[in-house]
Design brief:
The complex is a heterodimer. Chain A is of the alpha/beta class. Chain A contains 18 helices and 13 strands. Chain A has helices spanning about 20-35, 45-50, 80, 90-95, 95-105, 105-115, 135-145, 160-175, 200-210, 220-230, 275-285, 310, 335-340, 355-360, 375-380, 395-410, 415-425, 430-445, and strands spanning about 5-10, 35-40, 70, 150-155, 175-180, 215, 235-240, 260-265, 295-300, 320-325, 340-345, 370, 390. In chain A, the strands form two sheets. A seven-stranded parallel sheet of chain A has the order 3-2-1-4-5-6-7, sandwiched between helices. In chain A, helix 1 (about 20-35) packs across helix 18, helix 7 (about 135-145) packs parallel to helix 8 (about 160-175) and helix 11 (about 275-285) packs across helix 16 (about 395-410). The longest helix of chain A has 19 residues, at about 430-445. Chain A starts with a strand and ends with a helix. By secondary structure, chain B is of the alpha/beta class. Chain B contains five helices and six strands; from the N terminus they run ββαββαααβαβ. A six-stranded parallel sheet of chain B has the order 1-4-3-2-5-6, sandwiched between helices. Chain B is elongated and about 75 Å long. Mean pLDDT of chain B is about 80; it is low at about 60-70. The chains are: A alpha/beta, B alpha/beta. The interface between A and B is medium-sized, with 10 and 18 residues.
Chain lengths: ~450, ~210
């Protein structure tokens, strides 16, 4: 029997290092393992390098060999600015004034053509900055289908333009599609209320969900919100958690009594993290810890190259027992965690906010201090974790939790840590992603 | 001021110390402003600079907006190649002035010839002259000025081409090429084809 073929629309994909990339990578691996041919449609490396500025080439090495990658270029810049000066033709190079005049005179006509061709943000009645990506993706899918028809379209968002592209491709090629929400579109993750979107955008989302085979969310809170808002499609809503990569978990290390504690935080640092409160708590608790104790932070500073300086200016100095070790490549994550005695998980927002690092840290088998609002998604997840302490973003509470976690780390024996790790094994990313494969494969059952 | 200023074709005597930056300032005030910024950043970073400067404030249309071109730049490591006068004297730019002069002269001679051969009033003759001059003015504005504007980049390139060839022969490639305006863009496009791997931009600090 021929292998089924998945068309996977993932705008953010390696070499991008944005937060959603790890889920996309795991999705591809899971389908590859399950015996699917996978074609990924993503955007160009140029966009990630020049316009986003966040790239990790090592992620490309993790791609399964069988997976086909199709890159459909996208840019926020006007097309003429994207051309390198050396690529310009004789007229554009020698007579730039003439070209500029022609461009400005023909702008209205060109805008009209772009809208009609689907290459403009005005071509679709939705709020999304990536709408111009839809039509080229649909065109690429059409040419791909001629040589190798696909059996299912899976789209991951954001950007949610991928969902609309999946809907159109599905209609044109008569194949079912599934949408994978890495974040909720209709809801504001921080408040849990409806996002500020136009009525047309809500209509577009309803249309997309109505025609989809299934909708996948990263946690129960988001699934519940969608089931409630689109109650007629509640049975289509599923949860596939992000999971952790087994390669990111180091072997268990026995702690020597009396050693200083390493409190570790890892992830893409943003100004939404309650870092100021954690730094203040560190100042409170540090003097009561053994000599050599450290608060260690690793990860990129922001998702964009320009956000680093502002964040770094808020960090304490090394003489205050704080270390920022810089960005930690995926291959070095296990090494970072191998020295951590207590893991800190700073999170923002409410029930809808969980993060990949929540599950990763859960699998370490070390005490955890999760700093988030009481109803936060991370704290809800850790309620069933035997070594996790949840606290709100308040320096005194964090300091108390850090002290308790340090005591717990001293008391933990190696067998107990192994036991906790085994319990958490079900959240391993590829294990968790099997659920995604099952959801998609159920569409094949419907068709046969 | 500008002790290191060179005129066209004097560049042969100059060999920029490595590493160096090529600044193509263009002919407009905006281009000049960008060029000055680039030169300032290059010199503060310890880079030599060769600056092709086609701007001349005497020829700008808005003298009340004069920019201070004083001595705030350190020229010790900069050679400025000025080509504004040559650029101004190029036939494409001077064609308008020549046309005006010719029309003025020609219309007077037509006026004389017509008055000798035909019985027309002085008023009608003046009208004829005004009409010829008006046509010439419109032609100058609609055709010659536009042609001059469109081809100004190419004219600029034709003036600095031999100097660039000299630099290509004698010096190592620059570390950066900066251009100031649309007219300098033509020069940058040409130069980019000579030094294929040198970054080209409107600002030095973003390279």
């Amino acid at each position: 029997m021929a292998r089924p073929h998945l068309l996977y629309l993932a705008f953010f994909f390696p070499p991008s290092r944005s937060s959603g990339v790890y889920r996309a990578l795991a999705t591809v691996k899971a389908f590859d393992r399950a015996g699917w041919d996978v074609t990924v449609v993503t955007t160009s490396s140029r966009f990630f390098e020049e316009e986003i500025g966040s790239v990790d080439d090592s992620l490309l090495e993790e791609l399964p060999a069988n997976v086909r990658i199709e890159r459909v270029d996208f840019s926020f810049r006007p097309p003429e600015l994207n051309k390198q000066i050396r690529e310009l033709g004789w007229v554009a190079g020698n007579l730039p004034v003439l070209m500029r005049g022609l461009r400005s005179r023909t702008k209205r006509a060109r805008d009209f053509v772009d809208v009609m061709r689907g290459r403009s943000g005005d071509s679709y009645e939705m709020d999304d900055r990536y709408l111009a990506w839809i039509e080229p993706v649909v065109a690429r899918a059409r040419s791909l289908a001629q040589s190798n028809p696909f059996d299912h379209v899976l789209a991951t968002g954001n950007p949610y333009s991928s969902f609309e592209a999946a809907r159109i491709i599905s209609a044109v090629h008569d194949v079912p599609y599934t949408i994978d929400y890495r974040d909720p579109w209709a809801f504001d993750m921080r408040t849990g209320g409806l996002a500020r979107l136009s009525p047309q955008t809500f209509s577009a989302e309803r249309r997309i969900i109505e025609e989809a085979h299934a909708c996948v969310h990263v946690n129960e809170a988001i699934k519940e919100a969608y089931s409630s808002r689109y109650s007629e499609f509640a049975e289509k809503q599923h949860v596939v958690v992000n999971g952790f990569d087994s390669g990111s978990i180091p072997s268990v290390r026995e702690r020597q009594p009396g050693d200083g504690f390493i409190f570790g935080m890892l992830g893409t640092v943003t100004d939404l993290w309650p870092l100021a409160e954690i730094f203040e708590a560190w100042g409170i608790v540090r003097s009561s810890l053994p000599r050599g104790s450290r608060l260690r932070l690793g990860g990129h500073l922001g998702y964009f190259a320009w956000s680093a300086d502002a964040l770094q200016s808020t960090f304490p100095g090394r003489d205050e027992g704080f270390e920022y070790v810089g960005a930690v490549p995926k291959t070095e994550v296990a090494s970072f965690y191998s020295e951590v005695d207590v893991a800190l998980v700073p999170l923002f927002g409410g029930p809808m906010v969980t993060a990949g690092k929540v599950l990763e840290v859960a699998a370490l088998g070390v005490p955890i201090v999760c700093v988030q609002r009481e109803d936060g998604g991370g704290r809800r997840f850790y309620r069933s974790h035997p070594l996790a302490l949840g606290v709100g973003p308040d320096p005194d509470s964090i300091a108390t939790a850090m002290t308790d976690a340090a005591k717990l780390a001293d008391e933990l024996d190696i067998d107990r840590r192994k036991e906790v790790r085994e319990q958490m094994g079900r959240w391993e990313r590829l294990t968790a992603m099997r659920e995604m494969v099952s959801i998609v494969e159920s569409s094949l059952d419907h068709r046969t | 001021m500008r002790e290191s200023q060179a005129t066209l074709r004097e560049i042969e005597a100059y060999l920029p110390a490595e590493p160096w930056v090529l600044v193509l300032g263009g002919v407009t005030r905006e281009g000049n402003r960008r060029a000055r910024r680039a030169v300032r950043e290059a010199t503060s970073g310890g880079l030599s600079t060769v600056w092709f400067d086609g701007f001349d404030e005497r020829h700008e249309d808005a003298p009340e907006m004069r920019v201070d071109l004083g001595d705030d730049l350190d020229y010790s490591n900069v050679v400025v190649v000025c080509y504004a006068d040559e650029e101004r004297a190029h036939w494409l730019n001077s064609a308008g002035d020549a046309l005006t002069q010719r029309v003025e002269k020609g219309s007077r001679s037509i006026e004389e010839k017509v008055s000798r051969r035909f019985d027309v009033t002085a008023k009608a003759l003046r009208r004829l002259r005004m009409w010829v001059e008006k046509l010439a003015r419109r032609f100058r504005k609609l055709v010659l000025r536009r042609l001059s504007h469109i081809f100004r980049g190419l004219v600029g390139w034709s003036l600095i081409e031999s100097d660039i060839e000299t630099l290509e022969r004698t010096a190592a490639p620059p570390v950066a090429i900066v251009y100031g305006d649309d007219h300098a863009f033509t020069q940058a496009w040409r130069v980019a084809k000579i030094w294929m791997h040198v970054p080209v931009s409107t600002e030095l600090r973003h390279q």
